[in-house]
Amino acid sequence: MAKQYETVIGLEVHVELATKTKIFCGCSTAFGGAPNTHTCPVCTGMPGSLPVLNKQVVEYAAAIGLATNCEITQVCKFDRKNYFYPDNPQNYQISQLYLPIARNGYVEIEVGEQKKKIRIHEMHMEEDAGKLVHDEWDDTSLVDYNRSGVPLVEIVSEPDMRSADEVMAYLEKLRLIIQYLGASDCKLQEGSMRADVNLSVREVGASEFGTRTEMKNLNSFKAIARAIDGERQRQIDLIEAGRAVVQETRRWDDNKESSHAMRSKEDAQDYRYFPEPDLVPIVISDEWIAEIKARQPEFRTEKLERYNREFDIPRYDAEIITNSKKMADIFEATTAICGKPKKVANWLMVETLRLLKERGQEPEDICFAPEHLAKLIELTEAGTINSSVAKEVFEKIFDENVDPEKYVEEKGLKIVQDDGALEEVLKKVIADNPQAVADYKGGKEKALGALVGQTMKAMKGKANPGAVNKKLREMLA
């Protein structure tokens, strides 16, 4: 009988914090500037320059620690991690090894009907490295230090996950907690959330862990899932062939859907850690912890419970809306103005998600005002504009945040309320479409739809389809 294998997975998740400036200097953390423009002597490692800690980094890190049920280390400090690599300008990284800011936490995940706690071993603050750009055409490597010194927290889990589904659920839960805190936008495609996967396999029932490898270069949830499946299979194939799995760091190539070895896996002693001499220890008082706790937002789980009590919307809608804090904020603000939660949910679930997908955007990129969506709902409900005009107007609101009342007025999009004008158009449509009229009178209900369509076209969409339908039936009777 074929052997059965179990996958054992732990994650190291790096999250770039949403501070305006870097962890030890005043340079901007904005994404996408021209290479080496967000730099200074500190973050490029110039001799004699000294780091000064950004207090907001500690606040965000402690907030994430509290939200993930960790114990906060009230006296913590920084250490030097020594390694030599071109994107690391000082030849060391300021990180935390001996006294990380948070330890012994967990997040609860749900996969199907099963709930499970994924333990967090520790969470530490550190500075990011620069970015190497390899130009194959010129056969050169360039380095951009804009990212050097951007503040990170690294969240190290215990090896508690057993499948790609559990990994996805854990990452999704972390992403939502951190986004709700406002501590990071967690955009994988911009590198503000990155995950390294530590994975080993063992026979089902074995108590010892297998030899683990670490997978790097994973910048989307799909890439992470593919890398887990690929590495699991690679290790099983090695074991089945009687060969050893080597402890090493591997780089995942998502285009080829395979990985290759980068270097043998280092242990802490390889980095010659020692206490960072240029920074004093951080003391986090009980009062400071209480302040940070008091500022914690309502997280997704609590929101779902409240939506269930307060708003008459399906659970499915509530889950989609609360999957992004930005979306939840817009939903609540718009509902507070117009008092129509189901209508607001429909606009967010259908048209907003459609336009986000078409424009390749994330919910965090939404920039229209809740007031404008509320006004649009009121215009539609009052019968001032019809549903097809409402969609056209919403697209303008989505792209340009226009005031729908002004836009409808300027473009003359209001429904024509003049029965006389509608009757004139209907007479012409009936006269011009004798076949459709005959089909309708012969019992073909569909033919009426064609006549309504012709009327709407003639009225340039400025008629109420319901009123057109009713009037047509009366005239054809």
UniProtKB/TrEMBL annotation:
Entry-linked Pfam families: GatB_N, GatB_Yqey
InterPro entries assigned to the protein according to its UniProt record, in alphabetical order: Asn/Gln-tRNA_amidoTrfase_suB/E, Asn/Gln-tRNA_Trfase_suB/E_cat, Asn/Gln_amidotransferase, Asn/Gln_tRNA_amidoTrase-B-like, GatB, GatB_C_1, GatB_Yqey_C_2, Gln-tRNA_amidoTrfase_suB_CS
Source organism superkingdom: Bacteria
UniProt keyword terms in alphabetical order: ATP-binding, Ligase, Nucleotide-binding, Protein biosynthesis
Signal peptide boundaries: none
SUPFAM superfamilies linked to this entry: GatB/YqeY motif, Glutamine synthetase/guanido kinase
Domain annotation Asn/Gln amidotransferase: ranges: 329-476
Listed EC numbers: 6.3.5.-
Catalysed reactions, semicolon-separated: L-aspartyl-tRNA(Asn) + L-glutamine + ATP + H2O = L-asparaginyl-tRNA(Asn) + L-glutamate + ADP + phosphate + 2 H(+); L-glutamyl-tRNA(Gln) + L-glutamine + ATP + H2O = L-glutaminyl-tRNA(Gln) + L-glutamate + ADP + phosphate + H(+)
Main EC class the enzyme belongs to: ligase
Keyword Ligase among UniProt keywords: yes
Subunit structure, interactors included: Heterotrimer of A, B and C subunits.
Cross-referenced NCBIfam families: gatB, PRK05477.1-2, PRK05477.1-4
Role, per record: Allows the formation of correctly charged Asn-tRNA(Asn) or Gln-tRNA(Gln) through the transamidation of misacylated Asp-tRNA(Asn) or Glu-tRNA(Gln) in organisms which lack either or both of asparaginyl-tRNA or glutaminyl-tRNA synthetases. The reaction takes place in the presence of glutamine and ATP through an activated phospho-Asp-tRNA(Asn) or phospho-Glu-tRNA(Gln).
Family to which this protein belongs: Belongs to the GatB/GatE family. GatB subfamily.
PANTHER family according to UniProt: GLUTAMYL-TRNA GLN AMIDOTRANSFERASE SUBUNIT B MITOCHONDRIAL AND PROKARYOTIC PET112-RELATED, GLUTAMYL-TRNA(GLN) AMIDOTRANSFERASE SUBUNIT B, MITOCHONDRIAL
Stated name of the protein: Aspartyl/glutamyl-tRNA(Asn/Gln) amidotransferase subunit B
Native organism taxonomy: Bacteria, Bacillati, Bacillota, Clostridia, Lachnospirales
Gene transcribed to yield this protein: gatB
